[in-house]
Predict the 3D structure of the following.
Amino acid sequence: MRKLLLASAAMLSATMGLAGVASAQGTPWATVNTAPSGSVTPLPVLGSAGAPGTAIPGFGPPLSPGEVTVRLGGRLVAYGGVGADSGQHPGYLSATSAQIAHGTYNATTNPLGATAANTKLASYGIGEYARLYPSIDGLAANGLKYGAFLEIRADAGVAPGGGLNGSVSGATATRGDLYYRRETAYLGTDNLGFLRIGATDQPTSLFITGTFENFDDAGWNAQIAGGNASFPTTTGSLPVYPFPDVGALYTTNKIVYLSPKFADLVDFGVSFAPDSGNTNPTIGACTYANTATAVGCDTTSSTSVSGENKRTRNTVDGVVRLRTATGPVGIAATAGGIYSGVVAYNGTSANTVVPQYNGLAVFDGGLQVTYGGFAIGGHIDYGEFNTSWTPQPKGGRDALAWIVGTSYQFGSAVVGISYFNVQNPGSWSTVTSGAVGRTFNQSGLAAGGTLTLAPGLYTFLSYLYGDKHQAGVDLLTGVAGSAAAPIVTHNNVQAQSLVLGTRVAW
């Protein structure tokens, strides 16, 4: 049965060009098969960069009943690039200095300091990032498969070393410190499906289709997964990748069920996350249920603290997936949704002072068609959600995110192009209404390719262009205006970068 699963996975990867192939090349859960022609066909790992696929239990070295297999996978990506964006230019005007120039500055309502006018950033640089993937897989005599896997990343939470920040190895520096991004245990059988529990991917991430992350280093999603998509541009200029294979969703603690494939055509997945907590949760670390002080407690269900009500609770995620292939033609389609509640607000402030939020209510769908090495398709998310999958402010517009793309795989190379657009409330709320536009518009173009040089060794070229707009918001600082202090600076920003890199995976 295991051999049949692996063979089917290899066939589907070759004929359907599923999303996440580029990411698969960097994870230990994707076996890379070298065809007689020398081309490399990665098995389909469905999800974000570094995310394991639904068939994790069938991957890795052969298992015998009563044995366990321990692996340490990883990848290292190194790259250099050039970029240009709205935040690199000298003479940057902060919200405050712009308001002073327009005669609208109010020190009481907007006490911000002006940025030094002569600050300038270089448009080129070199960077890298690394991941480690320890895992264990076991097989019981009755066919039960079980195991666990971790994703370890390096933190980049401080400003560059040197100057006021000291060296990276300084006592207070966190850059380079390791932390867990995913912590997951699983068990199940090939015939009954598998359960996962922990900080792990939900079905909308695992089954994601049509986002075309199979070339360069996952396109715009690399901004989330590795950081090189934003390199060397400033983060305030970058659009935010809007689809569900991102950490805002996959890092929360949840239980997931993944079904077997029925009639060699359809499978499904469903998950439940009780709150927004993730690795090392604070379930037992809350002092007491004092809503005025229980800030950041994972299990908070109601609060009087402004901002704590902008958290999801009881999130249900489900997807049905269809996959089939006839000759050189392959079809993959998904349909599902994400639904949640929010932490209730029980304070006394009106919603003109403390915004209220709706739970997530999102339709998620994708389609991809391939013919030989060609693939074309897209993905869509529509409903009540906001930037980075935060809850929609009540009274705000529904969000719409879509992407279309195409790719072509030939020999040991794959090239592709994709374009996405997302419209959502952004910084609009009942508090900023009248001073901030109702729509935050972002778009991103990705083009590039990946060449397999040897098993586990890849080089890639990536070009990215993005822009975003929202009236009344300085998008470089994220500061939203008010009726008393409108903001007219940096309501439109752009960024582009060209990156050449290499990836080593094991």
Remarks:
- The two ends are 26 Å apart (CA to CA).
- The chain has six helices and 24 strands.
- The helical segments are 2-16, 21-24, 95-102, 203-206, 222-225, 247-250.
